[in-house]
Amino acid sequence: MQYQLKRIDPWSACKITFLIAGVVGFVVGALYAVLITMMASFMGMVGMSEGMPDEMGYIVGATGFIAVVAWIVITILYAVVGALVVSLATWLYNLLAGAIGGVQLTFEALPSVVPAPTEATTPGSDTSTATGDAGGSEPQAT
User: Fold this and answer.
1) 4 close to 102: Cβ distance less than 8 angstroms
2) Based on CB atoms within 10 Å of each CB, which residue in 44, 53, 73, 126 is the most buried?
3) Please, what is the Cα angle at 26 between 62 and 88, to 5 degrees?
4) Average pLDDT in the 100-106 region?
5) How many angstroms separate the CA atoms of 98 and 33, rounded?
6) Strand partners, 105
């Protein structure tokens, strides 16, 4: 089967990209927050040994706040910029696909797997309703 992808819905692509880019931005923002915190910690250790100026102490002290703000800003920027870029790309694809044709897709049907037929039982051969004890149950009190 051959199909041609003529149009991509920009809104659906934008929604999915916003979520995916937001998750990626969250992870990248966390890495940046850890990096900022580690750098400030290193600056604090070096500054203590060399007599750090008072202004530098305020920056090192505010590092936690700066790291959290950077984490939030990076997450939002990744999500918004990613969604905008994909929306622009889908608009451009739709424009070009209308003019010169879309992407050709070829699909192949998978062979269907038919389950093997089960063995038919006769009404008199059902062993689940037998009255005899098979040895698995406890004896009944009389």
Assistant:
1) yes
2) 44
3) 120
4) 87
5) 45
6) 3
pTM: 0.60
> Based on the structure, what is the number of domains in the chain?
1
Domain assignment present for residue 136? The answer is no
pLDDT for position 138: 56
In a domain, 132, yes or no: no
Q: How far are the Cα atoms of 56, 60, 62, 67, 96 from residue 48, in angstroms, in the given order? A: 10, 11, 16, 21, 61
Q: Looking at residue 11, what is its pLDDT?
A: 92
Whether 6 is in a domain gets the answer no
DSSP states of 26-73 as a string? HHHHHHHHHHHHHHHHHHHHHHHHHT--HHHHHHHHTHHHHHHHHHHH
Contacts of 133 (CB under 8 A, 6+ apart): 139
